[in-house]
Fold this protein.
Amino acid sequence: MDIFIPNKEISGCGLSGIINRQGELVKGELIIESICCQMERGNGLGAGFAAYGIYPEFQEHYCLHIMADSKKALKEVEELLNHHCYMAHQEEIPTRPTPGISSAPRFRRYFVKPRYEGEVRDLCEGTPDEDDYMVNLVMHINTHIDGAYVISSGRNMGAFKGVGFPDQIANFFRLEEYSAYIWTAHNRFPTNTPGWWGGAHPFTILDWSIVHNGEISSYGTNRRYLEMFGYHCTLLTDTEVVAYLLDLLIRRHRLPMEVACTALAPPFWSEIDLMPEPEKTLYTSVRAVYGAAMLNGPFAILFAYNGGLVGLNDRVKLRPLVTAKKGEFYYMASEEAAIRAICPDPDEVWCPKAGEPVIIEMEPNTIPNQRSYLHGQIFDLSTPICRFPAEEEEE
Amino acid sequence: MASQKENSSAQEPKKKVRKKRLLSKLYPDFIIQRDLEKCIKCKICIRECTYEAHGWDEKREILTEDHAKCVGCHRCEAMCPTGAIVITKNPSAFREHDTWKPWFIKNVYKQADTGGVLLSATGCAVPFRNYWDHLVLDACQVTNPPIDPLREPMELRTFLGPKPDALQVELDDEGRFYLKTKVGPWIKLEVPIMFAAMSYGAISLHVHQGLARAAKELGTLYNTGEGGLHASLYEYGSNTIVQCASGRFGLHVDYLKAGVAIEIKIGQGAKPGIGGHLPGEKVTEEISKTRMIPVGSDALSPAPHHDIYSIEDLRGLIYALKEATEYKKLVFVKIAAVHNAPAIASGIVRAGADVVVLDGLRGGTGAAPTMFRDYVGIPVELALAAVDQRLREEGIRNWASLVISGGIRCSADVVKAIALGADAVYIGTPALIACGCTMCQRCFTGKCPWGIATNNPKLLKRLDPDTAFERIYNLVHGWAHEIQELLGAMGLNSLESLRGNRDKLRAVGLNETELRILGVKHAGE
């Protein structure tokens, strides 16, 4: 008689993500079921979700999810927002008491637009420059307001995260009440960094959201590189750098998504040396210029934005990542089981190769404010002129 | 005055000549111990010792020793066929005194004997805190796997030169991405270790040939130093940095175009604030041709470049060199690490340098006034940390590469330097030790018994270029493998993920100020 030995893999963190290319809405229950299937990948010290398309009534406004330790911190955030933004709406993020979740911080969401004054108003309103304004605003809140953290800051999307198992966090934030065209989820097994509410995944900036399984050994290099461009890491977790790197490389430097992924998980020199031109020059330069943006160490990440979901492994594939397709639905997860739990008969299931990104973008013009980064962007942007007013304005 | 003196001595020829007694000769540093039972009187020691410390007494038919002449190079000991010779420290001791150590007493004797400036070679010999020895590295345990360089790729490739803030990438007609931004020229290094400027003249042609070949085989660069480039070395151009120092020895346009980079030497860690010294003893026919100076003349380069009295003058020279070489070469600017290094480095980057080189307090030399060698400049570890941070704060770190030198002794030092923020390092002394140097610190005499720091045709034969090449190559090859192992243990498979990654460093036994400057946490944090 054979003895059945479960082939259990002990490795930190579980991931799951869903996207529908036609913008069809997916109920929260589905992603909850998928991530909860990977319970062994977490230890109850962190879980989180990102949902896209959940605020159609305020789709033109940036939605700031704020986590605060105290009323005072929230008040400071509100004062700042009143000063720098037009606010369409604000409310407490609905939660419900959940067994096992105690001492949760306060959560509020604010739907805002940058407030430009005077001459720059006409120039900047409604331009992509608003994104820079918001990034600076987020950095300001994170670094200057004690006890307040921006959990997400994109349009028509939001992140929900905290300390607990994924089912608890989902229940706490009443996620079954939301429907989204992209979902990502994370189950955390924290090791190197403390388990606290701000440290749970996803990490976000604007509409970028990242869930990550792994450890970024190059964190010190990445963090100091990002500091040169005005990004400050405050959430004590290595994953934070990925969100900022994506924003820098793709939104600000306008690298095509494929090239940006190559910067994060580049081919080996031995491969580049064999490439034909123009690839050889391109990738040599990408590595030389963006060497400090390379993510080194074991990782599988899912990152999403208004219009796409991307899965990426480190360049020697030290963490699992599985992808599947069923009609217009695409699934990405740490384990195939997590996909089959919600999609029992996928058309296709495959394991992406090391360092090879899986980029799933929606059909063009499917959703409001849709972004597409495949093949690079068509529009060109002059130097931003409408920066978020820096400290000198603050007293 | 002088003529008066001469006259007076001429008028009183009978005055008794006082025999000068050299106190410094009375207390030798080393003792030559000869085991008479083992000695076969072959006299090899006499031939090998260039300082004439060994002698032969014809009458008594025995070997003699003049301990005062021994510099402690151990050549005789190494060459003695019967192992009869041991060189030891002179056990004869002065009465102990913590302030007046023998070093200072003997130096006073020397100067009282001669009235001269104390000379030394190599780098600072004072035991100032060595920060490399207070830094430890990280390794992976459980949460991320270490990587085994014997089984996985492990990349050390480094590009030197200015990098743009961002790249512009577009699609071509065939739907392929191509780079629109104009980049380079860059220098590709397969190991982040280059050979520091050591001039032909200070070291022998054979060592230069060895360095050049090793640089080529290793995929890195060697530096000509300020002594020009010997005709036989032009073929190694793609692995050569030519130096432009204040003396401008051997500098002409073909020389500038010979390498892939030109280094403007503003200062040297071993002797910041003064120029180079090549004693006339070392200026032979070949040296004279290469340096374009007369045989036997001292080659003393001036303290400043006489066309650089300000930062804008430096900019002028940088662009003059770039113009002369049609913007095909990178321009390095090397300074000694001094108090205000961060601000100076920032100025150099803004002046247009492609690579900034910091040479620290422990940087070596073939000849320097001892006071300069030991007491001028700051440790390169601190200078590096401060300069890297300053350039980042100014947002110009990518405008130039940062190379450090001075006191790198092993591959772990290289790894720590890169983690602190260096792009690459220069090594000088280790390459010479690889060739057999025993650090006797008498390079300026031109009598190097190991055939390294000499141009004496007889002594040259003691080190052939093939041996020099092989040994230098082996050293760096070994270091490169160790760097790969250390990287792999940290869970990194590429050197760029270590660059400036101070999280991988922890300090042991440093105070708060030192930790702040280094930007490193204390072990346990």
About this structure: Chain A touches chain B through 48 residues (CB under 8 Å).
